């Protein structure tokens, strides 16, 4: 089997969702590695060890495994502290390769920290680097509301260097491709657009009543928010929009906003308390149900139980939550930002509103809750749209990109269960 190295330095794809350093990128790396392994491309995912109790090597499935590399303390660290441990990470990856007697056809790095390590490994191995950023510091800084939310100059400089130096860049959508060229100076011809994927066996339309019964939800109308309790995710805007909708007549309805997500490691109680106080001050506390972070295999019930999924983010590189919701036949109301502007088809699979616009978000929510016919039409089209984003499709596109820079990987994926890639 031809072997590739995926790098995910700061977060392990095995980690449960809901923590500060876990999210869509974890899902992307894990599911891509599994699909590549099933198709005949052997994958080692290298990540920094954060728990000494976890074995060095953990199987993800046929042909795919996670390798935990000792680099600094075996405990969670702030991302800003990881730059000083990248040399140790590189040495750990190289040491594993030598012990196992392995050769890798290429390096596929995820997030900027992994990219920095990948460039050093390229210098040693002479193998090409494919870089996917997942988020860009410049765009996060553009919507930062305090100095604490701003990304470092080290990250900004590293992303510019990676955009110019990597052999290929992966953008999740045409919007990101244009941003990579405009903001980071990347060569447009070296950027390939490959969207994120969704597990169509896990995320699919389900029975609303059964899902609500399993979750203990008895409200007539259920709204869903899935994401970290971070300012960039826009929960504050959503609570204000609910208050506006209530003032405009929605107050007579039996509505529940279910909030799934939060930071399990730290600050969860403080953040939840802060948003509870905000909901109380806005007069919508009885409508809001904080469920905390949930395992991925529980998310389909939450999507199935929802009438509408809400993504009022200030910035999203793609919007994997939107894709999961749509695969479950749930329309999405999202901000017209970044990847969401492409992932959600306005008035086809959901509705798009300007970011931070409380009145527009409030109006979209009220419209979908009041118009059942529209809600159902959008949901049906959403499920149809999402079927083009199954992981077999994504893996096929990724291996075609691999083949551009590594001849040994041309035609390496044995199985092709993808009918089309939208």
Describe the model.
The protein has 422 residues and is an alpha/beta fold. It folds into 2 domains: 2-197 and 390-409, Glycogen Phosphorylase B (Rossmann fold), CATH 3.40.50.2000; 208-387, 3-Layer(aba) Sandwich (Rossmann fold), CATH 3.40.50.2000. The protein is 42% helix and 16% strand. The chain is built from 16 helices and 14 strands. The protein has helices at 24-38, 79-82, 86-100, 112-125, 137-143, 153-165, 174-184, 208-215, 235-247, 268-282, 299-305, 320-327, 340-343, 358-370, 372-386, 391-405; strands at residues 2-7, 41-48, 57-61, 64-69, 107-110, 129-132, 168-171, 191-193, 221-226, 255-260, 288-292, 308-311, 332-335, 350-353. An 8-stranded mixed sheet has the order 3-4-2-1-5-6-7-8, sandwiched between helices. It has a 6-stranded parallel sheet with strand order 11-10-9-12-13-14, sandwiched between helices. Helix 1 links the parallel strand 1 and strand 2. Helix 4 (112-125) packs across helix 6 (153-165). The mean pLDDT is 92.
